[in-house]
Write a structure and sequence with these properties.
- It contains 9 helices and no strands.
- It has 235 residues and is an all-alpha fold.
- It has one domain.
- The longest helix is centred in the N-terminal third of the chain and has 32 residues.
- It is globular, with a radius of gyration of 19 Å.
- The termini are far apart.
Length: 235
């Protein structure tokens, strides 16, 4: 049985989607879950965020290493409330506390996945063209789409491991499935837009390195991704 007093021993069972670990988290006070999940998110997303910003230098890397875990925590706060209400509306029988704990487990596993990818993205950033080079704009678009896909992949895989547990915990498997896919869509949507508001994460060639942009609400994430795709296809 997983040992909640030793956070490192919780990593393998979480990656396996161990039912006993998730059940103990749901049965115990939320502090037991937080004691593992918060450090996991800080470490995993902090390291991955560092590699995201490294292309623009160590200052940008440090900014993003701080900001990326903040994006996850902001998404948890927003979606924790929304998901709790959706779970009740859909008749799943899952309350606010359980919704947050399921989210914490999913984001913790996502952070572990991203941590495992970080060495690859670190060396890719080191071998990227200089931001002042002629092809830097194209590299910026490739970087945006690559990290978007990697983060989305990690999020979907990590949440997919929770599907069977949500179905078992809900009043019926159908209600559990409806609740799960509603949660997943909401997490992807809200997380993407929060990341846009808290940009930059890669740094745009020609713009100053900043912790936040001067006009964070201008534009949206989906328009930027669409423009990046069309630009690459027409290149």
């Amino acid at each position: 049985m997983p040992n909640l007093s030793n956070p490192l021993q919780n990593i393998p069972p979480l990656c396996r989607g161990d039912r006993s670990l998730l059940r103990r988290w749901l049965d115990q006070p939320i502090t037991e879950c937080l004691s593992f999940c918060i450090p996991a998110i800080l470490l995993g997303c902090g390291c991955y965020g560092f590699t995201m910003g490294l292309w623009q230098g160590w200052e940008m890397a440090s900014y993003v290493g701080i900001k990326f875990p903040l994006v996850i925590f902001a998404t948890l706060l927003v979606n924790g409330a929304i998901n709790g209400m959706l779970a009740m509306v859909l008749g799943s029988g899952i309350g606010f506390r359980q919704s947050i704990q399921f989210l914490l487990a999913g984001f913790s596993l996502m952070s572990i996945i991203l941590l495992s990818i970080s060495p690859i993205t670190f060396f890719v950033a080191l071998h990227a063209p200089d931001p002042s080079d002629a092809g830097a704009q194209q590299w910026h678009r490739v970087t945006l789409l690559t990290h978007t896909l990697l983060i989305a992949y990690a999020g979907i895989v990590s949440h997919r491991s929770l599907l069977v547990h949500v179905r078992n915990f809900a009043t019926t498997p159908r209600h559990g499935s409806q609740t799960f896919f509603t949660w997943l869509a909401g997490n992807l949507f809200v997380g993407a837009q929060i990341s846009w508001i808290m940009r930059p994460f890669f740094g745009t060639p020609g713009l100053d390195v900043q912790f936040f942009r001067n006009h964070p609400m201008a534009g949206n994430f989906y328009e930027t991704v669409w423009n990046a795709v069309t630009s690459l296809l027409s290149y």
